[in-house]
Design brief:
Elements (H helix, E strand, L loop, with lengths): L9 H29 L1 H33 L2 E3 L6 H14 L5 E5 L6 E5 L5 E6 H6 L2 H17 L1 H8 L1 H18 L13 H39 L2 H15 L4 H7 L16 H4 L6 H16 L4
Parallel strand pairs: 2-4
Antiparallel strand pairs: 1-2, 3-4
Helix pairs in contact: 1-2, 1-6, 1-8, 2-6, 2-7, 3-5, 5-8, 5-9, 7-8, 8-9, 8-12, 9-12
Length: 308
């Protein structure tokens, strides 16, 4: 975690380190398994190609995460002259947190949301949508921005971005195995052995499922951590709680088509682009709204107590 005035979170650091270690091991296991399944020099070559592709994806995501996220939301960077109030708010929070000021962006969409991304605090960007600017009060927006700046200080956006590489590669192998199935594949030994494509499919699906679960667990914890850090920085947890309620309620007014178009960014949003309760909420990148509000209520009660 970067050295700032945001409250520390040893639990987040431990979780990020553990997830990175486990996903790294999972990726190595995938490469070794593919080498064993395919067999021979051809199998070794294929496994090495998969390994290099995985490393390439991780480096690309690390290097260009801010650019990719901005393009995905069709966001534009704004200057202090274009958005003076927004910049003034970010300036004040960065001074409070004693951290470098990130770039500031705005996405022209009615979806009420915000996100932060970037490979380092010096190369980060905080983006808000026009929908959230219209929905929230200044105090509520400050709470949202403090939450996003906490993500930058914690560097958890970078970890989430790079850690997703194992799942992406496993998904590519799954697609390749399905493609091989279309052409019949081949068997390793005799007619009784499982086809190579089927073994590859099973291994890659297991890797994808495990990486999916690990990232979801980390993502939920990091949102609670950012809520907590942002609330302590502004000393106004009730404002962030009010903002989260408004954002979640505002999702119900967004057409399903627009929500689906933005769901690839759910892991980065302050609140997921979903409405109602369904299977999607069970596998959500965020903890439940009730869980977040309960935590903020506890912080509000703590801050409201007189000092002994």
């Amino acid at each position: 975690m970067a050295r700032t005035r945001f409250v520390g979170d040893a639990g987040l650091t431990v979780r990020m380190t553990t997830v990175m270690f486990l996903l790294g091991g999972l990726f190595v296991a995938l490469v070794v398994a593919l080498m064993a399944i395919a067999g021979g020099y051809g199998g070794m070559g294929f496994a090495l190609i998969v390994g290099f592709i995985g490393i390439g994806i991780a480096i690309y995501q690390w290097w260009s995460s801010d650019t990719v996220a901005m393009k995905a939301m069709r966001a534009r960077e704004v200057t202090p002259q274009q958005a003076p109030e927004l910049h003034a708010m970010v300036d004040r929070l960065c001074v409070l947190a004693d951290m470098p000021k990130p770039r500031v962006g705005v996405a022209d969409t009615s979806l009420p949301n915000a996100f932060a991304t970037g490979r380092s605090p010096d190369r980060s960007v905080v983006v808000v949508t026009t929908g959230i600017l219209q929905l929230l009060t200044a105090e509520e927006l400050e709470g949202v921005l403090a939450h996003e700046l906490a993500h930058v200080a914690h560097r958890d956006v970078l970890v989430m971005t790079v850690a997703s590489s194992a799942g992406i590669v496993a998904g590519m192998v799954t697609q390749g195995a399905q493609y091989g199935a279309m052409f019949g594949g081949h068997r390793r030994e005799g007619n009784s052995a499982l086809p190579v494509w089927l073994l590859m499919l099973l291994v890659s699906m297991v890797v994808y499922a495990v990486s999916f679960l690990l990232l979801k667990l980390l993502s939920r914890y990091r949102e609670l951590s950012a809520d907590r850090a942002g609330a302590y920085l502004t000393m106004k947890p009730a404002a962030l709680a009010s903002a989260l309620q408004k954002i979640s309620g505002g999702m119900n007014a967004i057409p399903d088509r627009d929500l689906r178009a933005s769901q690839a960014m759910n892991a980065f949003f302050i609140a997921p682009a979903i409405k109602g309760v369904s299977l999607r909420t069970l596998t959500s990148t965020h903890p439940s709204l009730e869980q977040r509000l309960e935590q903020l209520a506890r912080i509000q009660a703590e801050l409201g107590r007189p000092t002994p």
